[in-house]
Amino acid sequence: MDFMETYFAPMEGVTDHIYRRVHSRYFPGAGRYFTPFLSPTKDHVFPPRLLRQVAPENNRGVSVVPQLLTKSPVDFLWAAGQLADMGYGEIDLNAGCSSGTVTAKGKGAGLLADRDSLRRLLDGIFAACPVRVSVKTRLGVRDTAEFPAILDIYNDYPLSQLIVHARTREEQYGGSAHLDAFAQAVERSRAPVCYNGDVRSAADMAALQARFPSLGAVMIGRGLVSRPWLAGNMPDRQTLRQFHQALCEAY
Fold first, then answer.
1. What does each of the 251 residues of the chain score in pLDDT, given as a tens digit?
2. Catalytic residues
3. CATH code of the domain containing 66
4. How many domains does the chain have?
5. SS3 sequence of the chain
6. Which of 30, 146, 207, 208 is the most exposed, having the fewest neighbouring CB atoms within 10 Å of its CB?
7. Residue 13 lies in domain
């Protein structure tokens, strides 16, 4: 199926470097794989578990974008420098994680609750970051009415891409995605826009493309885990068996 570019969303505990390599071998339709977030520490060391996820030798042949979770520009820039030295040309800032343990620290979607802090973070990042930076965001904390002001902030920076999960932080993954609110990003964002949320079938993708024909990319998580071929064509049973066998052997 011909469609806009498809990205594999970061999913903690699922889309690690082993899964990414095997999936890309059997289902090469995903243009990019975003890593589950890396949270840089104040002592500026990547723990071995996180380092394995971004080590170049573990991601050969796979287009990978590391995602960082932090509210500190200093920590972001340290991590960005390390990742640039590994050969990465783009990093994604996580402003969308809705977990209470994350948002309580002002990280992830918690950044959206304090727009002055969000602006200070972006000021620091774009003053010195050595690579391109995209942002994955929510529409707001409690209400989609927050999104226009948040979008105004993003429009003040040269984002490589704005990835919008079309829900608020409080909604987490429940209810329906807000396509009317997402339309504001398509219409007003100065950065290229990618849609995220509730795409689980070819019919969902076709409907999204019909509603937003100028949209260049879609990010899919749960839909690609349940239907690993969703970014391309339905495989035969033999390919599916080989894929699952390869996963079992790799783990």
1. 445 899 999 999 999 999 999 999 999 999 999 999 999 988 998 889 999 999 999 999 999 999 999 999 999 999 999 999 999 999 999 999 999 999 999 999 999 999 999 999 999 999 999 999 999 999 999 999 999 999 999 999 999 999 999 999 999 999 899 999 999 999 999 999 999 999 999 999 999 999 999 999 999 999 999 999 999 889 999 999 999 999 999 99
2. 97
3. 3.20.20.70
4. 1
5. CCCCEEEECCCCCCCCHHHHHHHHHHCCCCCEEECCCECCCCCCCCCHHHHHHHCHHHCCCCCEECEECCCCHHHHHHHHHHHHHCCCCEEEEEECCCCHHHHCCCCHHHHHHCHHHHHHHHHHHHHHCCCEEEEEECCCCCCHHHHHHHHHHHCCCCCCCEEEECCCCCCCCCCCCCHHHHHHHHHHCCCCEEEECCCCCHHHHHHHHHHCCCCCEEEECHHHHHCCCCCCCCCCHHHHHHHHHHHHHHC
6. 207
7. 5-250
